[in-house]
Amino acid sequence: MQSSFMFFGEALCFIAFKIFYIYYNRRGDGSVDNNVLTKGSRIFNPFILLIPALCDMFATSIMYIGLNMTYASSFQMLRGSVIVFTGLFSVGFLNRKLGVREWTGIAFVIAGLAFVGASDILTMENTDISANSVITGDLLIIFAQVISAVQMVVEEKYVGEQDIPALQAIGWEGIFGFIGISVAMIPLNYIAAPPPFADNSRGTLEATDEALIQIGSSSKLLIAVIGISFSIAFFNFAGISVTKEMSATTRMILDSVRTIVIWAFSLGFQWQTFHYMQLIGFIILLIGMACYNNIVIPQLIRKCQCYLGRHKLRENEDRIINTAADDVQETI
For the whole model, what pTM was predicted? Predict the structure, then answer.
């Protein structure tokens, strides 16, 4: 059910694309082919987006299962592991060569994930949460990033070549994902599973009727569900706008801010206790993502190298001048 709300939000992007397309097309000034939201090839086979949509469906569902078993902040931080798997798959399937900077970033991300996982284990000692539940949830989230990495590689290899408008691509993935997860929910309602994978009264992986009853009887939950759907739509819309108008690195920085906000809310509402190792892990994760995406830290390193190079050159020049002066003085 959680995944279906997310895909419904993505499907709203398709409606948004159609609205923008009709608006700019009616202007008749060629803006429909130049605007960042609508430009691109609009004649393509939508089923090329089916495989990325299925990857997204499986990855998102597994992540939400993991989210229900671990902490919200850990869920957000562990999603950073997608960089590791995307980099490895890019080397294996896209024949891309990673430089020292990318490998350094991957190493930092792995170290940061280790700190985040360790903080979860240490935090559990002061709570009533099952250790097996949190560890299993963390592992499920990391496993979901493997599938997400496959999705990104497939999108880059096949979808990127089609030059499909990003808003339209997200909309089609949302449509395929919503249909797929709706069909998948039928057998999931009859598959029995032990806790913590199933905590409903029926003891099944999914209990759609109970979910609908809960949503219908709780205005706060209904508002949250509606908020999730529209926030997903606006999140993707804003992400595309930032990537098109600014850069993907700017989007990555803003996405890191989201992690901080989620972590602050988790601590503020006492959904989890603070542990310094999680802060260390988060900082190391940010350093790794910054290195991999070639922002801030690599630029600072290059500036330091240039400064040291100029300083060394100046010292060599001074040494040459002083030596020449000594030679002249000895000659005199």
Answer: 0.76
